[in-house]
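Contributing: when you submit paired examples, paste them exactly as shown. First protein:
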Amino acid sequence: MTFVADNLEHEAGYVAALQQSGIEVLFHPYVRSIAELLMKRGAEFDVVMLSRHYIAAQHLPTVRRFAPHARVVFDTVDLHFLREERLAALDGGKAAQVSAQAKRDEELALIARADVTLVVSDVEQALLRDLAPDARVLVVSNVHELSAEVPPWEERRGLVFIGGFQHPPNVDAVLWYAHDVVPHLRRALPGVKTYVIGSQVPPVVRALGADDLLILGHVADIEPYFTGCRVSIAPLRYGAGIKGKVNLAMSYGLPVVATSPSIEGMHLTDGEDVVVADDAAAFAAAVQRVYDDRLLWQRLSEGGRANVMRHFSPAVAREALRELLELPLDADRTDDAHLKRA
C-alpha cells in the first residue's frame, strides 16, 4: 500500500505512523508530481483511491492514462453537492444555488468515470441509486475504536464541540450556538463552560470567546476533553455525510446533543443513544436535561458506544473494504468511457 498527499507534503508524525503500519509514504522532494509518480509506477497499482471530489477531478484523467489496469475508486468522504444544496436552501441565495448545481454536475461526472464510488451512509447510497443508477456505490463509513474507560457522570464538567473550521458548516454551527443557544444556556446552566476545539479558527469565531465559551483552536491531545466533559454538542444546521464529531464523542461514552443534520444516516434514536433538538431554545433545554439527569446520561453513554460498535467499528469497516477489494476486476468497466454496471 502506497500513500501520497496531493500537495506532496511530509507531516512527520503522520508519515511515521503510516510507515510503522507498513505503508509506503511518498513526498517531496523524492516525488515531484503525482503525474510523474504515475508515469513511473502506475502499472504497479491494482487499485487507486482518490479521496474527495476536488482531488479526483484533478487526478482521475492522469490515473486513467498511466494506471490503465487499476480499479479507480472515488472516495467522496461526503457528497459535497448535497452539502452545498442544503446551504443554498438555508440562505436562499441565487449564487449558492448555481454553485450547488455546478458541484452536483461535477461530482456526478466523477462518479460516472470511476469504477467504484464510496459513500459513508446508506442515505447517500440511496440518493446515488436515483441520481446515478449505473454507478457501483459502496458504503465505507467512519472508523472508531471504543475508549478503554468511561469516567462517570459525577466526575465530569462542561460541554465540548469539535470540528475543523476550514469546514464551513462548523463555522456556521458555532456562530449559531454562540448567538442563539448560549443565551438560553446561561440561564439554564449558569457558569457551565463550553470548550470549542478545532484548527484554523477564523476571526469571527475567535471573537466569540467568553468566560463560559472558550475558543481553544487546535488541541494536540483531545482525550481530556472527551473524558472530562459531560456533554458533547453537534449544532450543525447543514451538512452531508457522517459526522465524525458525533462518532468520536460516542466512542468515548460521551453523550451527544445534536441537531437533525448532525446525525443523518447514523442509525441513532432520539432519547436512546442521542438527544435531538433543532431550534435554539429546545437545543439548550436538551443540553440541560442531559447535563443534569444522571440516568439519562448513562443510557445515552451506553447507547452511543453500542451504536459505534454496530456501525462504525474497525470490524465493520474491514468487511466493507473486503467487499470493495474482492469485486471482480473484469466487472469494472463496460466500455471505453469506464461506465459501471448496476
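Second protein:
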Amino acid sequence: MRVTASPAVTAHWPTFIVVCLCFSVDKADQALLPAVYFELCRELGAGPAVLSLVTMARGLVQAAVAIFAGPLGNRFSRIKVVGIGCIAWGLATAGVGAARSVPALMLGRAVNGLGLGLVVPVAQALVSDMFPDAQRGRAFGVLNLFGNLGGMLGGLFATSVAAGSVGLLAGWRFAFHAVAALSCIVGLLVLGVGREARVRRRSAPLVLRNVVRDLGAVARLRTFCIIILQGAFGSMPWFALGFMTLLFELLGFTHAETALLTTAFYVGATGGVLLGGVLADVAARRSPSHGRVVVAQVSSGAGIPLFLLILFGLPAANASFAVYIVVLFTTGATISWCAPLNQAIMAEITNETLRSTIYGLDRVLEGLFAPAGTALAGFLAEVAFGFRQSAACGDDAEAASGEAAREAAGESGDANAHALATSLAVLTAVPWSICFLSYSLLHLVYPADRKRALAAAEPQDGQALAGPTEVGMGAIVVSEGAK
C-alpha cells in the first residue's frame, strides 16, 4: 500500500530539511578527529590511547548534557534549542582547530559535546512530531542518511587536506575551521527557517520534581531499557571504528586511497540507513510487534563476520584495492539499519510530551558507555597487542606509506596494523554479539509497551488529541489541562 504524506507533514518540509542539515554537520564534525589521527599523532605526539581519550571526553560531555535536552525540548522552543546548540558546537570546533597541545585539544572537543548533547535528541523529537507512525521509519532513515552523508563528506574532506596546508594553516586545522563555519551557518538557518510542530505539550513548570517525573516515566519502559542496553554495546564499535583511517594508512594505503576506502564505507552506510528505515516500515506493516526488531537483528548480526573479513581476511589475502572498496561498501550498507529503527520504536512507545525526554535520556545512557569503544580500542592496541607509537608516528612514517610499504609489510601485515586490527576485532565482535542478544529480548516486551502507548493516545472524555497529522506552521499549542 502506498503511503503519502499529509498536507501538514508536507508543509513542514523546510524545517525537516534544516534539521537534516544539522545532522549532516554533526556527523561531519564527528568524522574530523578520526580522519586526522595520523597528523595529530605526529604533530602533538599523541598515540591511539591519548587520542581515544579526547574522543571519549567529547562523548561523555555530550551524554551528560543530553539529560537537559528533554526538559528544555518539552518546555521551550525546540527550534531555538537546536539552532543555538548548532552555533555553540561550531564555535567549539573552531577551538579544536586552534589547539596547540593535547589538553587544549581535549578541552575544545569536550566543549564541542555541550552543543551536540542538546541538539541531537531535540532534533529527533522535532522529526517525530512531524510524521505519523507509518512514515517514521523512512523519516528517520532520511535523517540518518543526511547524517551519514555529512560524515562521509567530512571524513573525505579532512583526510584529503590533512597532510598538506591551506595558506598558513595546517590542512587538518583548516578542516576543523571550515566545519566550524558551516555549523554556525546551519544554526542560523535553523533559527531563520525552522518552525515548531503544533502538538500537545506539557505546561508543567521547569522544576526538578517535574523533570524527575518525566525521566522516571521513560525509565520504567522496558522496551526503552533494552534499547539502552543494546545501544550501550552496539554503539561502541562505531566509536572504535574511528581508528579505521589510521589502520588503512598503517596497511600502506596512501592518504588518497584511505579517503576512498572510508568514503566507500560511508556511501554504503548512507544508503543503508535509508534502506533500514524503509525495511522497518515494511516489516512493521507485516508484523507491527516484531517486524522492526527482526530487521535490527539482521543488521547487528551481520556486522561481526563482515568486520572480521575486513580486519583479517582481506589483509591476509593481500586483497586488491577494488576488493576493499566492495567489501567496505557492502558492510556499511548492511550494519547501518538500527539507528532509524530505534528512533521509530522510541517514538511509538511514548507520546509527544515525552519524546525530547526519551531521546535525551537515550543519548545520556548510551553516551556513558559507547565512547568507551574509542578508549578501549586505543588502550588494547597499545597495552594488550603491542602497538608502538614511535614506529607509527615518527618522522619516517610518511616515507613508510604507499604501495612499497604495503609490500614490505608482507602477508601478515605491519605489526602495528595487526595490533590495531586485533583491538578493533575485539571491540566489534563482542559488543555486537551482546547487541544481537539484546534485540531478542525486545520480542518479549515491545508488543506490550507499544499497545500501552496506543491505548494512552486514544481520545478520552470526548477530547481530541493533536497528533502528528495535525501539525502546522504556527506557534506551539500548549494543553492547559495537561497533567
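If you have annotations for the second protein, write them as plain sentences, like these:
Residues 1-9, 395-413, 460-483 have pLDDT under 50 and may be disordered.
Residues 7-470 form a domain with the Growth Hormone; Chain: A; fold (CATH 1.20.1250.20).
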